[in-house]
Amino acid sequence: MATAVLKRKSGVIVGDDVKALFNYAQEHKFAIPAINVTSSSTVVASLEAARDKKAPIILQMSQGGAAYFAGKGVANDKQQASVAGAVAGAHYIRQVATSYEIPVILHTDHCAKKLLPWLDGMLDADEAYYKEHGEPLFSSHMIDLSEEEVDFNIQTTAKYLKRITGGEEDGVNNEDVDNNSLYTQPEDIYNIYKTLSAISPYFSIAAGFGNVHGVYKPGNVKLHPELLSKHQAYVKEQAGLKEDKPVFLVFHGGSGSSKSEYTEAISHGVVKVNLDTDLQYAYLTGIRDYVLKKKDYIMSQVGNPDGEDKPNKKYFDPRVWVREGEKTMSARVQEGLADFNTANQL
Predict the structure, then answer these.
(1) Catalytic residue list contains 178
(2) Average pLDDT, the chain
(3) Which of 324, 346, 325, 344 is nearest to 334 (CA)?
(4) Catalytic residue chosen out of the listed positions 16, 17, 77, 109
(5) In angstroms, rounded to a whole number, what is the distance separating the alpha carbons of residues 200 and 187?
(6) Which of 81, 157, 192, 252, by CA, is between 20 and 30 Å from 173?
(7) What is the C-alpha separation between 6 and 84, in angstroms, rounded?
C-alpha cells in the first residue's frame, strides 16, 4: 500500500512524502488525479471520492479558482484576491483533510508570466507557515511559462525552484516548453531536467504530447502518449541514469481522453493527471437535475403541489441542492480514480 512509503499517512503531505508517493505511483503504474477546487463544496466532493475509493488525491487551485475562493466581489488587480483565496483554501484543506484519512497533495495550477505576483504571494505564505510549522503551506506549485522563450522559461523556473527549496518545499511543475508545437521535444525535457535536478529533485514536468485543455470530440485531437517513453529514454541516456523513468511526468488536459490513453501515458511515467472540465459539468448535473425534478417546490417559499400552505424550505435550502452537485462530482472523481488505477492503492 502507498501509505507504507509515507511518513505522514493522512492529511496534506509535503517534501519527501510527495516524492515517495510519486515514485510509488510509477512503480505501481498509477497516476493521481489533480482536481481543481474552487470552494469548500468541491473540496468535500473530491475528498469523499478519494476516501471511498481508498486513494490519494491532489487538490489544486488555479488563479481564477483561488480568486473565487476569496469571493468574486474582491478586487484582484494585483492578484490580492487570488493570493487570499489560495491561502484561505489551503488552510481549509489542511484543516479538513485529516478527517478523510487519506494523503492529500495541496497544489496550485498554471501560473503564467503575468500571474507571477500570485505565486510570489503564495510563496510568502509558504515561508511564513514554514517558520511556524517547519513545512510549507502548500505541497507544490506549478509555473507555466510555455508561452515564453524556452531559455526564459527554464531559467525563471529554476530561480523559483531555488527559492522554494530554500524553504524545503517541493514540486514545481513546468509545463511544456516548446511553444511552437503541441508536441514537446526530448531535448527540451532533458534541458529542463538537467537544469532543475541540479537544484532539487522535487519537480515534475508537463510534456506536451498533443493534449489540450477542455473537452474535444474524438479524432479532433491526436494524442501520442508513446512520445513520453522517448522522453524518458532520452533523459536516461543523456544523464547516464539507471532508472527507466527518471522524470515525474504530468498529463494536462485529461478531460475527454480515453482510458487507453490514460493507461499508456501512465505506463511511461505520468504520475499526475489534471481533471477539471469533466468535473465542472458533473457538479452541474446534480444541481440541474434536482432543480428540474423539484421545480414546483422551489418557485416560492410556501406553496407546492402538496398544498398551498406547505413550506418549501427543505427543498430550497442550499445544503440540499448543493449536496446534489457534490454527489455527482464525487462520482465522476471516483471514475477518474478507477481509470488512473489510483483506487485501492491505500
Answers:
(1) no
(2) 89
(3) 344
(4) 109
(5) 20
(6) 81
(7) 30
